[in-house]
Each structure stands twice: as structure tokens, then as C-alpha cells.
């Protein structure tokens, strides 16, 4: 079995037309061919290399990581003298991936990385998290190294990034006991010592994934007397300094193999990453966008695993003398699970491609001044990435939860038992709509793109593409959904009250998300009708019902109802 080879959707996204441009920019026009081992000379060579690595990851995940997941779940990490020890099966997974050279995936070859685009790294995460979401957390945090690459000094990059590529682990230390979603309230103190010219960190961080990592990215208050985000800076702090201690590993509902830690910084020496006072305003916002794409990927992967478990069980389980997959309420549920999964994945890879192009232009700007045309194009990709990220993180995580719920339901009483994988998936899925920004915070992040008209523009762009005649009726139904979204948005804005708009924002968000996801799945079906058209038809039907319900609610809303909710 191979978790890449059996997923035709991933192979489809590897062949998306924009990938040729993404790869050419990532490879600097293929100028490194001959300078580094395995540096490709053209897109065909690059694609072949990606497929080989993806197939390797798919094999390792199907043959080792997935079978290890039950052991990891039972054993979990342990704490000894302030240090975290992974479960033995987790250590086995990490060692295997290090030996296979699967670290530093997106980092440049000069640091020992694979120099893969974000989209390909996303595909690897998609495969890994399907096998075990907890291991996906640990392995995927190598992506934090992008922050050092983008904002760190040349010396920091040359010293730290080769170690990440060699297999050292990372964490992003943001949350504190009194600063969760409100990161402006971070109070961990960073003090500069004039005598030795070094920064020192003192305080506590909480809910830190992989909190006993080798290299920490720490958000800390560097400006004495400050009370908001303008007083925060980002620091690099290494476990080897001996002044970081894990105080506890949290007992959690799910993702047991991923240690979530409370850690203490006891005058830990650190170094500034980037400029002072830009920690939250610039660097953490960039870091969080990458993390949210990662959680969206984890969500899609869990949705995939849940669907596979439900489908397999339904094919084998007999009731009333027949396999339950032949019972209409069951196969309707399975069809809906696949449709939601395909729509979420379509949105995920559209987001990843725009993030990729944004990164490629940023890299190009390091080498030379961008032309006016390039600057304009860069802004468009950046805006798309920023607008799509909160939708994919919010919607994909909710879909992961729904698919995990339905997988348990298909299993019936057996699904409630820990003997079955779907029970673990149900618990693992729950965190996806909470960490790296709850679904409600994604709504807050997205609403300005709704009120500013950007989602309307995106829908117009997606629906302007030609599709086969067989898909034209579905395209017209999606266009009608887009029309309902515009009506709902106009109705909400007509109240002329910010509080009312805020109250209705989740419904506006979903009323935009459903036609956007439908339109993207339509484009995928236009390229591969056999693979995606069945899911498209099912998803459009479900999306129409959701959009109609939200639109009716908004149009019938009265200020008196807001008063009732306040009681």
C-alpha cells in the first residue's frame, strides 16, 4: 500500500498548469542544475523528483507511520527531569524520516534542503497526516525554519538551517497562560544585557506543540512598559542553552503523540530574529499564516483518513443480510464525505499555489528589484493567499470534524470503541478547528475580504473559465450561489451597524466559502471530469442548501434578534 500512489487527486494537483511557473521560479530558472545533486534541468525532471519523494513518503506512511499510530496513541510522550521523550514508535518514525532525507523540505539546497515548493511540501504533509496527525505535527514543524530563512540574518541562516535540514526539531512558542488568541497580551520578558550584548528570556509559555524542540521561535516583550503588539519581538532560543525547562506535558483529548508543553524560560540566552518590535506585527503573522495552511492540510488528511475508514467498514459490515454500503442513508453519508473532502482539498491546493507564488516573488525580490508588473502580480498573489488562508483553515477543519463524526456513525457502536481507528480520528480532528486560530478567528480574519468585495472578484475570476458542456449546468448553479452571496452581503451591510455585521459574519463567511469551494472543484472537474465530477455534483447540492439557509437568515434578520442573543 502507498498513501501517495493511491491518491489520484494529489497527482492531479502536481500537474496543475501554475506548477510549471512555481517550479521554474523556485529553481531560479533551473540555474542550479549541475551545481547540486538532483537539481533539475527542467520541469519534467523536477516533477519526476517530486513524484519519487512523494511515493517514498507514501510508502513509509502506509507501511510504518500508520501501523505505529496505535502504539504512539497508547504510549505517548513522557517527561523526565524537564525533558520530553517521544514515544518509542514516534522516535522510530522520526529516525526513519531523517534517514530518508525528508527534513528541510522547502529550504534551499545550499543549506542541505530539498528546495521543494510549498505546494509539494503540502502534499507530503497531506500524506503524513493521513497516517498519523500527531506525527504530522512534529515533522511538519520544520516549516518554522522558513521564518528564519525569510527574516533571520545571513549568519543565523548559515548556522541554524543546515541543522534543521539534518533533522533538528523546531517549535513556535507564542501562547501563554494569559495570552491565547490575544497575542498582543504576551508578557514573557526579553531583556537586553549591555555587558555581554545578549538578550535573555524569562517567563512561561503554554500549549506549545513540540515544546522541548531543539530550536525555539519565541514571541517576547522586548520593550519595557509596552502593553500591545508594538512592544513584541521574535527571538531564536536553543534548547542547548540549558535554560529552557518543560514543566509539564498536557493531557489532551487527541493527538497524543504530539507533546503539548508548558515551558519555562529561566534567563535563557536568545538572539533577535529580524528587527525589534516587529515580532507580532510582521513575523508572527507570517508564521501563523504558514501554520494555518499546515493545519488546513492536516484537516484534509484527517478527512481523507476518516472517509477511507468509513468506506472500508461499510463495504465489509453486513446487517439485515447485506453490506451496509448498499443502504441508502449510509451510501448518502459516504458520498457526502467524499464530496466535502474533494472540495476542501481543491481549496487547499489553490491556497498553497498562491502562497507558493507569493514566496517565489519574495525570493526574487532578494536578488533584484522587481519590475512594476512583477510587483503588481506579487501583490495579487499575496492578497489571494491572505484571503484564502482563513477560509481553508476554517472550512477544512470543520469538514475534518464532520467527516470524523460521520466515520464513527458509519461504524455504529464499534466506532465508539478504541479498537477502531475512527475513534482516534474523531478525537484528533477536534483540535483542528481550535489551534492556530479558532474557526471564529478565521471568520474575523476573512470578513474584510468579504466586505471589501475581494471574494466577489475571486468568484468572478473562477467562473470566467470555460468548462465542458457537461459541466455547464453545474457552473450556472454555482453562479447562482455567488449571486445569493452578494445578496446576503448587501443585506448585512444595509443594516449600517458594525455590531450587526459582526454578528452575521460567520454566515457571510460560509456563504462566500461554499461557492468559492464549488467553483474551484468545478475547475478541477473541468480538467479531470472522471475524477472530480461526481463529488462536484454532490457538493454543489449541499452547498446550495447551506447558502440558501444563510441568505434567508440574513435577509430575515432583525435587530431585535441581536438583543435576544445578548440576554
Model description:
- This protein has 567 residues and is an alpha+beta fold.
- It has helices spanning 8-14, 17-26, 43-75, 88-99, 118-131, 133-140, 145-151, 154-166, 279-316, 328-367, 372-411, 421-430, 439-451, 454-463, 472-494, 498-503, 505-527, 529-555, 559-566, and strands spanning 78-80, 83-85, 170-173, 189-193, 198-209, 215-221, 232-238, 244-249, 260-272, 318-319, 322-323.
- Strands 3, 4, 5, 6, 7, 8 and 9 form a 7-stranded mixed sheet that branches. A two-stranded antiparallel ribbon has the order 1-2.
- The longest helix is centred in the middle third of the chain and has 40 residues, at 328-367.
- The radius of gyration is 24 Å and the shape is globular.
- The model has no long low-confidence stretch (mean pLDDT 96).
Order of helices and strands: HHHEEHHHHHEEEEEEEHEEHHHHHHHHHH
Summed over residues and divided by their number, the pLDDT gives a mean of 96
Number of strands: 11
Largest sheet: 7 strands, mixed
What is the 3D shape? globular
Give the DSSP E fraction (strand runs of 2 or more residues). 5-15%
- Report the span from N to C terminus: 55 Å
What is the share of helical residues? 55-70%
Low-pLDDT stretches are none
Structural class by helix and strand composition = alpha+beta
Q: So how many helices?
A: 19
* Rg, nearest Å: 24 Å
